[in-house]
From TrEMBL, chain A:
Pfam families named in the record: ACP
KW RNA-binding (keyword) present: no
Coarse class of the protein's main subcellular location: cytoplasm
Residues annotated with O-(phosphoribosyl dephospho-coenzyme A)serine modification: S28
Compartments where found: Cytoplasm
GO CC list: cytoplasm
Modifications the protein undergoes after translation, according to the UniProt entry: Covalently binds the prosthetic group of malonate decarboxylase.
Protein name: Malonate decarboxylase acyl carrier protein
Domain of life: Bacteria
Record key words, sorted: Cytoplasm, Phosphoprotein
TrEMBL record, chain B:
Domain CoA carboxyltransferase N-terminal: 1-239
Signal peptide stretch: none
One GO-annotated biological process of the protein: malonyl-CoA biosynthetic process
Gene Ontology MF: a single term: carboxy-lyase activity
GO CC terms of this entry: acetyl-CoA carboxylase complex
SUPFAM superfamilies found in the cross-reference section: ClpP/crotonase
PANTHER family according to UniProt: ACETYL-COENZYME A CARBOXYLASE CARBOXYL TRANSFERASE SUBUNIT BETA, CHLOROPLASTIC (PTHR42995), MALONATE DECARBOXYLASE BETA SUBUNIT (PTHR42995:SF1)
A Pfam family matched in the record: Carboxyl_trans
PROSITE patterns in alphabetical order: COA_CT_NTER (PS50980)
Name of protein: Biotin-independent malonate decarboxylase subunit beta
InterPro entries: AcCoA_carboxyl_beta, Acetyl_CoA_COase_Trfase_b_su, ClpP/crotonase-like_dom_sf, COA_CT_N, Malonate_beta
TrEMBL record, chain C:
Alphabetical list of NCBIfam families matching this protein: mdcA (TIGR01110)
Gene3D superfamilies cross-referenced by the UniProt entry: Glutaconate Coenzyme A-transferase
Domain of life, per lineage: Bacteria
GO MF annotations, alphabetized: transferase activity
Gene: mdcA
Signal peptide (residue range): none
PANTHER family xref list: ACETATE COA-TRANSFERASE YDIF, MALONATE DECARBOXYLASE ALPHA SUBUNIT
Alphabetical list of InterPro entries matching this protein: MadA, NagB/RpiA_transferase-like
Location of the region described as Disordered in the Swiss-Prot/TrEMBL record: 377-404
Organism: Sphingomonas populi
Protein name: Malonate decarboxylase subunit alpha
Length: 105, 300, 548
């Protein structure tokens, strides 16, 4: 497995009060995204574990785009990747942020 | 603008639990934030999942407290590994200890190949867990209607449940279609003939021959309603139940042993047009099945 | 004195030679190979059917079993290279030269054989183009065709899969060639006559139906959220503003998703009756919910689809059907309809370059063209106006006075920025160019040329190439919807915002679509079973698509 870490300055802090959100599933072409809170409201930390080696540039681009466009400050995100395409990764990250903003089910 | 029916087949493990239990009643045990992942998969350079492919916890159905487990059929085909198995075993032991009913949403291809020994042991422990809980008066209700079906050790565990609720899409068997074809040849079993596979292992056939007890639409609300009803039945497991089921299975092999296709069995059950069965809608089928099916509640 | 009837004389010779192995028109099945060796001559131009769906499979086997010492160097002119036998005859030397359109399942082997020099390639055509050449310089001397049944006179019934047969027979029979038909059975009375018996010289009773492949069945269960998002954008960003009523869809999942969103998302947008009413389209099972919801007025089909026969027969107001009730398809006419009478073609591709050329050729596969380049091209001979055609023309050329301005067909490429195996949809250089260099071809096999492409839709947005005023804008418009591919990451962000202000690029949010709202509950059918139920049980899906 290749493990990648990103710690990115986040222009917008995440909303809501929920402690944790989980979206997606580890399957071929899919991924799971576990979103938790951290102590740094202006940072977003992302850790990726992927079986597809050698795509650091792509993950960097997806992660930076995500943090720039969504309210991701103060989040700690862990990803288990089953070989998802970048558009799927973006979608799951956005779903994760939306879910943690929702009230507790 | 959207379909109101929520498909059980399409839902994930967490969505199934959310649909089964009363709103806001579910509390997960050993949730994904605990990161209790498989210790074996990384050796094979395979990705792990934070819940190891099973969600377990407690909740309420119609106000009655229950334990709930749901396998995630999309992660490694819902296969049972060491952690996955331990979570279910623990849940069943707790159920016996506190005398609380258990609902298991199966979605599994059986034991995870990469952790075969641990997985096989887990299957045995889970079966023991089901039987011991049931002997103590706990109901264990199994729900089957997911992508992976209920195969291998999953099929054995399902056989031990109090009640099995199945939809048309749900398949129940021990040996899977590809394995049968590999070992016995394509003439014996053509695994790519999907309507044949479902005719042989799918929910309708299992219902008709007493391999499952309640047939429902592929709808999360239908699974919930049937689960409530199953939890209202008297819990029963004793020597008489097993002896009666053994006798039924012996009769069944005598009666249907020569049949080469499920439709032959359906004909022998007295169904006029067996070839119409696969395309029948769920409600019509359930009515017809009530008239003609074999029954094996409590054991099979 | 010149003889003016040498071709007919040659045909008479063939009929006499073949007659030895036939009873009147009925070929003795035990002597099929002897028969074929008797009627064929080395170097003959031969058409075997060979469509993309139905196959004259028994005749193909017969061809492959001939003795290459007797019959060799045939020139095959066929629309589909589909069966292994179609290429076996090149390996054995029975055939030498090939002109074709499509090679789906044989695309990898045909590439190897072309590289290895086993096949002398004439050209890769569109269907309509190859049919046209049947009447000009590629008229078959012998045609081997397939039908459902024949009567004693050689009249043929093709059933719903008429496809190429009338075109092939017309060119061959009236061009003084020999027509041989494989049929599933010989009957006293045909349900309808698709091919008159006086155009058919021999009939082989194959004793079983011809082989036919379900090609257009897309399982809704496999549709992804991204495909649904892309389909929503196409409906809201293209179908609605242009008011597209007459159109053709490709066979991919993206367009199938559009079909399944019409009765849900399209209904919500109030578009029923305003878009997607008239089609040149194969009978896609995914169109059933829209038809049942009253969206569709008429569909003309290139071919049929396995399992759709009863449904088509039960909807004669929508589909073209014969006196027997079953579908009458016709590839040549439907291709013509797609070229001249449709205002939009929308389909998927495997590669798009920075100028907007697209191709389905990858390094090791030559899948051919089929009909897409014909549908996916602006018909320069078109003269009738329609609102979408005029609007597209005005966007492309705002300065020419309206009465002298050509309209434009909407030619839309739709897809996700990364395809199967994470292969990027957008590339610097098409694999088709590398192939052309490798095989020393005059033309690179480009599916849709850049100057015909009007829009590109991906999950990231819609690029309107009609509004681009120079090559630079065009390139940035393409980069602007190329997502995280290398092409997409190479974008000029400042210029992109300018293009967005001019609506050359539209993002989901510009169209009022939240990507997070795209989910499978929006599909009018989420499984093949749902499609069967929507059809009232008339659609009978093949076993491979069932999970019941």
């Amino acid at each position: 497995m290749e493990i990648l870490h990103f710690d990115i300055a986040a222009p917008t802090s995440a909303g809501g009060t929920r402690a944790m959100a989980l979206v997606g599933v580890v399957a071929s072409g899919n991924l799971e995204v576990l979103v938790e809170r951290s102590d740094a409201p202006d940072r977003c930390a992302i850790e990726i574990s992927t079986a597809a080696h050698g795509f650091r540039d792509l993950w960097t681009a997806v992660a930076e785009d995500f943090v720039a466009r969504r309210a991701a400050g103060g989040l700690r995100i862990a990803i288990n990747d089953g070989g998802a395409r970048p558009d799927t990764v973006s979608l799951r990250l956005a779903q994760g942020v939306r879910m943690i903003e929702e009230p507790e089910a | 603008m959207s379909n109101t029916r929520q498909s059980w087949y399409e839902a994930g493990a967490r969505e199934r639990i959310a649909a089964l239990v009363d709103p806001a009643s579910f509390a997960e045990f050993i949730g994904p934030e605990r990161r209790e992942i498989s210790p074996h998969l990384s050796i094979f350079d395979l990705p792990t999942q934070f819940d190891d492919g099973i969600v377990v916890g407690c909740g309420a159905i119609g106000g009655t407290p229950v334990f709930v487990a749901a396998q995630e059929g999309r992660f490694m085909g819902g296969a049972v590994g060491e952690v996955h198995g331990a979570k279910l075993t623990g849940l069943l032991r707790a159920a016996k200890a506190v005398a609380r009913d258990v609902v298991i949403a199966f979605d599994t291809g059986g034991v995870r190949l990469q952790e075969a020994n641990a997985g096989e042991i887990a299957i045995a422990e889970i079966m023991r867990g089901v039987v011991e809980a049931r002997m103590a008066g706990v109901r264990v209700v199994g729900l089957i209607g997911g992508r992976a079906g209920c195969y291998g050790g999953g099929g054995l565990i399902a056989g031990c449940c109090s009640t099995l609720i199945v939809s048309e899409q749900g398949r129940i068997s021990v040996t899977g279609p590809e394995v049968i074809e590999t070992n016995k040849g394509v003439e014996e079993f053509d695994s790519r003939d999907r309507s044949f596979v479902w005719r042989t292992m799918g929910g309708k056939h299992r219902t008709l021959i007493g391999g499952a007890d309640v047939f429902v639409e592929d709808d999360t609300m239908a699974f919930r309603d049937a689960t409530r009803a199953a939890l209202a039945r008297a819990p029963k497991l004793d020597g008489n139940t097993l002896a009666a089921e053994q006798a039924r299975l012996e009769r069944r092999i005598t009666r249907f042993g020569e049949a080469s296709d499920a439709t032959d069995i359906w004909q022998l059950l007295g169904i006029d047009d067996p070839w119409a069965i696969p395309d029948m809608p769920a409600t019509g089928f359930a009515t017809l099945a009530d008239t003609y099916r074999e029954r094996a509640d409590d054991a099979r | 004195m010149r003889q003016w009837n040498t071709r007919k004389a040659l045909r008479e010779e063939r009929i006499a030679a073949g007659g030895v192995f036939a009873n009147a028109k009925a070929i003795d099945p035990k002597h099929l190979v002897d028969f074929l060796e008797a009627v064929l001559r080395p170097g003959d131009r031969v058409c075997i059917e060979g469509d993309n769906q139905k196959q004259a499979d028994v005749l193909a086997r017969g061809l492959a079993d001939m003795d290459p010492a007797r019959i060799h160097d045939l020139h095959m002119v066929q629309s589909g290279v589909v069966l292994p036998e179609h290429l076996d005859i090149f390996d054995s030397g029975i055939a030498k030269r090939l002109d074709f359109s499509y090679s789906g399942p044989q695309s990898a082997r045909i590439a190897r054989m072309l590289f290895g020099g086993k096949i002398e390639l004439g050209a890769i055509h569109t269907y309509l183009e190859l049919f046209a050449r049947y009447f000009v310089d590629l008229t078959p001397q012998v045609a081997l065709i397939a039908a459902v049944s024949a009567d004693r006179h050689g009249n043929l019934y093709t059933g719903p899969n008429t496809e190429d047969t009338p075109t092939v027979v017309e060119a061959t029979s009236f061009g003084s060639g020999l027509v041989i038909a494989q049929v599933g059975e010989i009957v006293d009375t045909l349900p309808r006559v698709d091919i008159p018996g006086d155009q058919v010289h021999f009939v082989l009773d194959a004793g079983r139906p011809f082989y036919v492949e379900p090609l257009f069945t897309r399982d809704p269960a496999a549709m992804t959220e991204t495909q649904i998002l892309t389909a929503m954008m196409a409906i809201k960003g293209l179908y609605e503003p242009y008011g597209v009523r007459r159109l053709n869809h490709g066979i991919g999942f993206n367009t199938a998703a559009i079909e399944l969103l019409l009765p849900t998302y399209g209904e919500k947008l109030g578009l029923k009756g305003k878009i997607c009413t008239h089609w040149a389209l194969n009978p896609h099972p995914t169109l059933i919910p829209a038809i049942e919801a009253g969206w569709v007025e008429q569909v003309h089909c290139f071919g049929s689809e396995v399992g759709m026969e009863d449904y088509l027969a039960a909807r004669p107001d929508i589909f073209f059907t014969g006196p027997d009730g079953s579908l009458r398809s016709n590839r040549a006419f439907s291709q013509t309809a797609g070229l001249y009478a449709c205002d939009m073609f929308i389909g998927s591709t495997l590669q798009i370059d920075l100028s907007g050329h697209s191709s389905t050729i990858t390094a090791n596969r030559i899948a051919g063209f089929g009909g897409a380049p014909n549908m996916g091209s602006d018909a320069r001979g078109r003269r009738h106006p329609s609102a979408p055609w005029l609007q597209a023309g005005a966007e492309a050329d705002p300065d020419t006075p309206a009465p002298l301005r050509r309209g434009r067909k909407l030619v839309v490429q739709i897809g996700e920025t990364f395809g199967e195996g994470n292969a990027p949809l957008f590339v610097e250089k098409l694999s088709a160019l590398e192939l052309a260099e490798k095989l020393d071809l005059d033309l690179a096999p480009v599916m849709v040329y850049a100057d015909d492409t009007t829009h590109i839709v991906t999950e990231e947005g819609i690029a309107n190439l009609l509004l681009c005023r120079n090559a630079d804008e065009r390139e940035q418009a393409i980069r602007g919807v190329a997502g995280f591919t290398e092409i997409g990451r190479g974008r000029d962000k400042t210029m992109l915002e300018r293009l967005r202000a001019r609506k050359i690029i539209q993002r989901p949010e510009d169209l009022g679509i939240d990507p997070l709202d795209a989910n499978r509950n929006m599909l009018a059918a989420r499984s093949i079973k749902d499609l069967m139920l929507a059809s009232g049980g008339l659609y009978r899906p093949p076993s491979r698509f069932r999970n019941w």
